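Worked example

This section walks through a single chain of length 202. The input is the sequence exactly as stored; nothing has been trimmed or padded.
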Amino acid sequence: MARILGFAALVAVLAQGLVAARAWSGEVAGRVVVPVPVIQADLGAPLLLPGVEPDRPPVATGPVLVYVAEAAGSLPRTATAGVRVRLAGGKLNPPLVAVSLGSAIEFENADRREHRMVSRSGPLHLDLGWQARGMTRELRASQTGSIQVECALHGDMRGEIVVLAHAAFVLADAAGGYRLPDLPPGRATIVAYAPRLGEVSR
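Given that input, the structure is written out below as tokens.
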């Protein structure tokens, strides 16, 4: 099926990632599950991480975006309000941001050092310029797709912005739960995406 975003192919770690729980008039809800990571020792069989029961995979602990890729009718196109990324402690918080097309994203430097957020790949090449401590810069999401952003001065300070053509998306909660309301009646394709892991659809 056609998808809004062209992410890399799904890797095995997320192969059972999306568990659809219930679907009813105008809403889809469920839970994202990331299977137990496996460590390959130098010799012998793969080992499970300590303290994890093999028959009970943990829920997603990192950011997981759940969005509608296809629907039977029109999807809501409201702008995403109040999106802010804090630059602090050498990290972007949150590291994954999702917005609808045309939305504004504020980058706030709450760190002790200067930063310069740039993107050299994806649909939007950007350079937000120098940001001293306490400064805020704004990015307008003018094209759909995935934007990898990083600090030009500190290469390990990275994050990702996903811009969708509609507002039918949500970041899964700490327990992996998600809820997509206000959907048109009929069948829909739902995608779960996690940075470095890939995506899966149902």
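What to look for: Residues 143 and 161 are 11 Å apart (CA to CA).
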